[in-house]
Amino acid sequence: AGAGSGPVPGDGAGPPATERVLFPPTFSVSEIKNKQRRHFMFLRWKQQQRKEKLALKKKRRKEREALGDKAPPKAVPKTIENQRVYDETTVDPNDEEVAFDEATDEFAPYFNRQTVPKILITTSDRPRGRTVRFCEQLATVIPNSHVYYRRGLALKRIIPQCIARDFTDLIVINEDRKIPNGLVLSHLPDGPTAHFRMSSVRLRKEIKRKGKEPTEHVPEVILNNFTTRLGHSIGRMFAALFPHDPQFIGRQVATFHNQRDYIFFRFHRYIFKSEKKVGIQELGPRFTLKLRSLQKGTFDSKFGEYEWIHKRREMDTSRRKFHL
Q1: Which residues contact 304 (CB under 8 A, 6 or more apart)?
Q2: Spans of biased composition, class Basic and acidic residues (predicted)?
Q3: 253 with 220: CB under 8 angstroms?
Q4: Residues whose CB is less than 8 angstroms from the CB of residue 227 and which lie 6 or more positions away in sequence, other chains included
Q5: Which side of the chain, N or C, has fewer Cβ within a 10 Å radius?
Q6: Which CATH number fits domain 92-316: 3.20.20.370, 3.40.50.10480, 3.30.70.360, 3.30.40.10?
Q7: pTM summary value
Q8: Residues 6+ away with beta carbon under 8 Å from 35
Q9: CA–CA separation, 37 vs 30, rounded Å?
Q10: Quick one: pLDDT at residue 249?
């Protein structure tokens, strides 16, 4: 059929232009054989979906404004987080058993202010430039931390030396192909030891709109969504890295945010714009951690007793089940 030979809107031969549907109800873009045409039609379909969603959103907003106080409460969207499978190890803050465990665990001297954190940060053998810079920047985030390089020493020989020099924690940054990809955190002298996979590392110069260099003030520590017994232990390990009494005058805050068992680390500074408005300025570095194992005692890869090991095929059976 030539141009103009189709039905004219409103002449009775076809539906009006406002009622015409872009695609038939049974249409599938995957049925189009031509790749370029298929891609073009897919983009048109996505554009139509966005327009319909935006129009529905505007319609609902106008209805709510018209109803005023009589408007029904907003529907809570379904997310993976709020549909989480219940975990029987979820911590109740008022549980006496949890309170007793916290009073007698390895981190109790820190929370009772009997010990002051002193951190040793080291690397795998022969670290490259990016890993070295990351360790140096991490040392500016964690107060009273010292960076030393391995020089071929095994961790089993490093740990007794750390204990003899009154270090409370050991952090080991591992790398692969010049990129930091692992973090081992061992609490001294009696453990536990956590092994994390590290990803999405961003140094300060790679962060857009970053602030000035951090000061030497002790930062606040924020721990989000560590709700299970395992998550509680990991959160206490992170908290024990920082001195217990933050210096609020420095306006610096270190955040460990757990979401779907991924731990996102951010380091910010508060910016007071007025008496009511407060902004934040990221200082860096930033990285993401995923717990691989939690081991009793200090690092021992051969004979160590593990409290928890991440087994993908057994544990990752549901997207809505989380362990931290």
Answers
A1: 193, 295, 296, 297
A2: 63-72
A3: yes
A4: 87, 90, 91, 324
A5: N
A6: 3.40.50.10480
A7: 0.77
A8: none
A9: 11
A10: 92
